[in-house]
Amino acid sequence: MEQIKVVAAIIRQNGRVLLARRAKHKHQGGLWEFPGGKIEAGESAEQALKRELKEELAIEVTKLNPVFQTSHQYPEYGVHLDIWEVTAFEGEAGGAEGQEVIWVQPKNLLQYDFPAANKAIITAARLSNRYLITPENLDRAEIIEGIRIALDEGIKLICLRAPHFFDPDYRDLAIDAVGVCAGRADLLVKGAFEWLGDFPSAGWHVTAEQLRKLADKGRPLPANRWLAASCHNEQELALAKKMGVDFVTLSPVQKTATHPDVEPLGWERAKQLIADFDRPVFVLGGLTGQDVPTAQQAGAQGVAAIRGLWPYELD
Ligand SMILES: Nc1nc2c([nH]c(=O)n2[C@@H]2O[C@H](COP(=O)(O)OP(=O)(O)OP(=O)(O)O)[C@@H](O)[C@H]2O)c(=O)[nH]1
Ligand SMILES: [Mg+2]
Fold first, then answer.
1. Does residue 8's CB lie within 6 angstroms of at least one atom of ligand 1?
2. What's the first-to-final CA gap in the chain, in angstroms?
3. 52, pLDDT greater than 80
4. Which ligand approaches the C-alpha of residue 122 most closely?
């Protein structure tokens, strides 16, 4: 079947994201979209995106970075969507082709109707590019204090991981963490499936071992809660897809202090795995917030880290 190459942009300004409504007569007409369009012969994705945003919104893009790529088969044809994030532009974004244009808060994106291909794009638009995972061997007060400082520094996505805690202490810690994060960041909890089901966190983060056990049963959470998984290879990524996760961490990209004996994937292999996976990926392993641009160049949503994102130095 014919496969169309399309570029589209998640345009961010003042914490909001721009949506445009597709003209009624067009393919997927009447639905909301991220502005963009077909890549023409001889154009790079970047050139095509700049041209499309000029035509559709009358803006000159000045800062953009790749976010990820996804494919979808419509009955009429297949589309390969190359999604970029635009964080700076000149001019005022408006519907230059008469289309409706609105700015929405990422957390409200689930309320809009998009073409079927957009599922993972919406996930990407709702996620930030740093995913903090809490360190081992800290006590309850230290973990909570670290989370507080991280929130003040703008961290918006956190995974609570404390394998040295056991129920019911772990549950108490998780309840504290949910309280501290309320309204400021999304907290995903790692832990035993028995109690996570009704636990009031923004989501769950499943381990590779849990993936192997549970992926066949499908997605255990509704769409408005996050489901993420830890993946290290192609097989685990396939299981994550089967389970219906929203996003994954992929590790280790580099050698890490916590797992010095594990052979890292390296950027080239990580890049391939990310390109073949249809949902957002956070690269993990020996990385810090400074590596976000490199991660995005490799097609990742951003960086996940323990030490690299924790707000103070650990022993
Ligand atoms: N721009 C854009 N296209 C999308 C999105 N999601 C999605 O499935 N598509 C599909 O990608 C294809 C190409 O997009 P387009 O219609 O914007 O192409 P274009 O700007 O070059 O339009 P034209 O053919 O009228 O010149 C369409 O089939 C459209 O349905 C999205 O979020 N943004
Ligand atoms: Mg278009």
1. yes
2. 56
3. yes
4. 1
